[in-house]
């Protein structure tokens, strides 16, 4: 075996040259990119803005306190498309942008209206960008402005909006995947959540970050997109929740009955929805039955009903059901009338349950959907009533048993 | 050089799984859409059948490799042609896999590294394991790597459970139909059919009784893993997006997010995949060297390693671009290698051997 020792030595020598130093990337050569903003620049080009972590200012708790500085900064530049804009951006960014931690994408209103189809490919062609990402349209503004709004609780606007989205029971970081899936299907149109700039105290103009009433970013409903991935318009927060409920994506929600009839609220935590397509026998017209299901804990009831009696619970269940049915029905009708786009996925319900009939329906679905009859029924159950039977504010004589 | 039954099992599993999971999901989804699992199940059944026939055939000729017994079965000339058909497959696939390996690693991990460094590193590893250990060395490696691959697949399935949407399975069959499902079946079947290399491997075993059992169960496990993974991709992403991605499983892994802190696992997945590719490449490397040496009756098959190593390097460099490797898989591999090398010849070998044995028996009576 001695004769091979020279070969072995050569093989070992190779290790010195071949141990992958081509792509050495130090952490301090990288700019960690948290969120991307897409806008249309005044010149008509694309403007890309990014939110980048300032590593020195992102301290863990218990560090040298005092007036801490911002943990991020925002940078933007324009170009023909994203890659061009990024190349232009790199001229003022000392480190290479790293997209592996990007979790949020903001679209300026104008950009969303212009349509995404011609610009959005870059997100998936790059290997380091994950499909897990949140997606927002910025209502009445530019994404780059929203990316400059910090939040006193969080390190950056990106984290803020992600957490707000999750706390409100919405899609969270699956929004981008949801958008892509909807863009690929015939029976559902994409809908994208909305963020807007607002102030921490309602009705007053927001001040600086360290003032008691700082500017904040706020979840503001959802947008409707059409087949060509162009934005058509907005729905508000309440309608957004109805939409998510019908889509089966909602995680939590509070329903309140009107104050005049003894205002009560339930916090739904087990939420589900079933869409049943029904075909009439005469002319094969399709209509839908939506069955909303929800269960949760009673939050408040200002009515004097004693909930230790099951009749009272049933009564309240009925009231909640009525409110939910009305609300969701109104939202569906509004979408049908104003936008005519099936963002709920009724078409997909036919596709999955009656695939053969769907083949004839799918080409004209945009025309069929606005004229389709949709009825909503709700089944709501109060699972827990909280720490009191009747309200403690009512006298014995006022309590209805 | 001796292989135990267990080594054949892990060899078969490791050799199939990595590339099959990475490369087949997207083309199958393109054809079979949400019925991708039906395609994989059919492919699994047929794949197991292929390896069963191949290992049975190999056992009819104990202690002989394909190169030796094909000439005794078909005669000198046809036998040599049969061997050449296999050698073409083995030689060409190594260049292709090397290319694919470098392409994928560069895209995901090392964007600035020139491809030839990756070819050279991988080739050196292959040469090392083949030269020092031969088939036994590769078998032992696969005994270590196989369980790692299984573990990663199990973890992948567990981690993706919370993102699963069972509704993605519907509607079954109506959207695609039998033709699309069958078209989808061909790609994974062409990968599972590679298990015909058992025709060569069976001669190295120390316990011929176990060959059929270990080979079949190894392929079954590989087919099962690939089916589960394809199902996983379908349930998380639905049928339309993965069909357009080149490596959907990579995107599923980068999509995973467990409790917001287990994220960006794709790099680990690439490393596990490289383990499998290493086994696959070394196995083909060994087969082409050993087969060629036997064909030309060389005394020391190890001498072939040096010639082949240089040849494969040149071949990998020669593949012009990505669409070519894709075309290789779509045309040569599924349209020629599958019906001829994986189905046709093993069945022919089996039938002719049986007939000859019968004739011999009746002749002596």
Account of the 3D structure:
- The complex is a heterodimer of chains A (401) and B (365).
- Chain A is α/β, with parallel strands linked by helices and 401 residues long.
- Chain A is 29% helix and 28% strand.
- Chain A has twelve helices and 13 strands.
- In chain A, the strands form two sheets. In chain A, strands 1, 2, 3, 4, 5, 6, 7, 8 and 9 form a nine-stranded mixed sheet that branches. In chain A, strands 10-11-12-13 form a four-stranded mixed sheet.
- The longest helix of chain A has 30 residues, at 310-339.
- Chain A is globular.
- Chain B is mainly alpha-helical.
- In chain B, 79% of the residues lie in helices and 0% in strands.
- Chain B has helices at residues 5-32, 36-59, 66-74, 76-108, 115-160, 177-192, 198-201, 211-237, 240-244, 248-255, 266-295, 302-318, 322-364.
- In chain B, helix 2 (36-59) packs across helix 6 (177-192), helix 3 (66-74) runs antiparallel to helix 4 (76-108) and helix 4 crosses helix 5 (115-160).
- Chain B starts with a helix and ends with a helix.
- At the A-B interface, helix 1, helix 7 and helix 10 of A face helix 5 and helix 10 of B.
- Chain B: It comes from Neobacillus kokaensis.
- Chain B: It is a multi-pass membrane protein.
């Amino acid at each position: 075996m001695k004769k091979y020792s020279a070969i072995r030595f050569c093989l070992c020598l190779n290790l010195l040259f071949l141990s992958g130093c081509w792509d050495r990337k130090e952490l301090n050569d990288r700019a960690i990119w948290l969120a991307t903003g897409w806008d249309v620049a005044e010149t008509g080009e694309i403007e890309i803005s990014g939110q980048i972590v300032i590593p020195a200012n992102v301290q863990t708790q218990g560090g040298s306190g005092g007036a801490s500085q911002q943990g991020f900064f925002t940078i933007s530049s324009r170009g023909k498309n994203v890659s061009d804009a990024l190349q232009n951006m790199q001229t003022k960014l000392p480190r290479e942008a790293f997209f592996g931690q990007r979790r949020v994408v903001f679209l300026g209103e104008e950009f969303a209206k212009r349509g995404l189809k011609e610009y959005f490919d870059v997100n998936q062609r790059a290997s380091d960008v994950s499909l897990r990402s949140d997606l927002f349209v910025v209502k009445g503004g530019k994404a780059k402005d929203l990316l400059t709004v910090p939040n006193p609780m969080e390190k950056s606007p990106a984290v803020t909006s992600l957490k707000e989205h999750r706390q409100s029971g919405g899609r969270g970081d699956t929004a981008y995947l949801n958008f892509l899936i909807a863009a690929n299907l015939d029976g559902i149109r994409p809908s994208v959540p909305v963020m807007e700039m607002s102030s921490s105290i309602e009705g007053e103009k927001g001040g600086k970050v360290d003032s008691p009433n700082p500017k904040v970013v706020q979840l503001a409903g959802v947008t409707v997109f059409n087949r060509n991935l162009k934005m058509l318009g907005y729905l508000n927060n309440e309608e957004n929740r109805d939409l998510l409920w019908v889509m089966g994506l909602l995680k939590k929600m509070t329903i309140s009955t009107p104050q005049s009839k003894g205002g009560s609220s339930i916090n739904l935590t087990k939420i589900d929805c079933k869409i049943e397509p029904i075909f009439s026998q005469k002319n094969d017209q399709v209509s839908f039955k939506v069955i909303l299901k929800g269960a949760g804990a009673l939050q408040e009831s200002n009515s004097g009903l004693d909930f230790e009696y099951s009749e009272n619970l049933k009564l309240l269940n009925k009231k909640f059901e009525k409110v939910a049915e009305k609300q969701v029905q109104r939202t569906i009708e509004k979408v049908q009338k104003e936008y005519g786009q099936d963002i709920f996925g009724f078409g997909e319900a036919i596709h999955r349950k009656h695939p053969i009939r769907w083949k004839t329906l799918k080409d004209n679905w945009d025309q069929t959907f606005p004229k389709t009859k949709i009825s909503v029924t709700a089944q709501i159950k109060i699972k827990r009533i909280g720490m009191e039977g009747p309200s403690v504010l009512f006298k014995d004589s006022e309590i209805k048993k | 050089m001796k292989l135990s039954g267990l080594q054949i099992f892990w060899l078969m599993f490791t050799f199939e799984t990595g590339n099959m999971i990475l490369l087949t999901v997207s083309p199958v989804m393109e054809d079979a859409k949400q019925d991708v699992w039906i395609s994989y199940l059919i492919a699994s059944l047929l794949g197991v059948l292929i390896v069963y026939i191949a290992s049975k055939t190999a056992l009819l000729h104990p202690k002989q490799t394909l190169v030796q017994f094909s000439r005794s079965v078909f005669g000198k000339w046809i036998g040599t042609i049969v061997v050449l058909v296999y050698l073409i497959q083995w030689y060409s696939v190594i260049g292709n896999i090397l290319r694919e390996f470098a392409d994928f690693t560069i895209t995901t991990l090392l964007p600035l590294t020139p491809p030839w460094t990756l070819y050279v590193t991988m080739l050196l590893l292959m040469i090392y394991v083949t030269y020092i250990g031969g088939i036994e060395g590769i078998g032992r490696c696969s005994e270590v790597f196989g369980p790692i691959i299984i573990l990663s697949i199990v973890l992948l399935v567990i981690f993706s459970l919370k993102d699963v949407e069972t509704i993605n399975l519907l509607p079954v069959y109506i959207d695609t139909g039998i033709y699309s499902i069958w078209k989808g079946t061909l790609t994974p079947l062409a990968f599972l059919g590679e298990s015909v290399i058992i025709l060569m491997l069976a001669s190295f075993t120390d316990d011929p009784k176990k060959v059929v059992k270990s080979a079949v169960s190894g392929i079954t496990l590989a087919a099962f893993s690939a089916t589960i993974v394809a199902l996983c991709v379908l349930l998380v992403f639905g049928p339309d997006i993965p069909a357009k991605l080149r490596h959907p499983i990579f995107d599923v892994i980068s999509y995973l997010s467990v409790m917001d802190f287990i994220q960006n696992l794709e790099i680990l997945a690439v490393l596990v995949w490289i383990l499998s590719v290493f086994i696959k490449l070394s196995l083909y490397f060994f087969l082409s060297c050993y087969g060629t040496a036997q064909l030309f009756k060389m005394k020391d098959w190890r001498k072939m390693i040096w010639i082949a190593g240089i040849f494969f390097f040149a071949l990998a460099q020669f593949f012009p671009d990505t669409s070519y490797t894709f075309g290789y898989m779509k045309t040569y591999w599924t349209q020629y290698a599958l019906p001829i090398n994986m189905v046709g010849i093993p069945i022919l070998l089996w039938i002719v051997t049986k007939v000859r044995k019968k004739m011999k028996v009746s002749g002596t009576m």
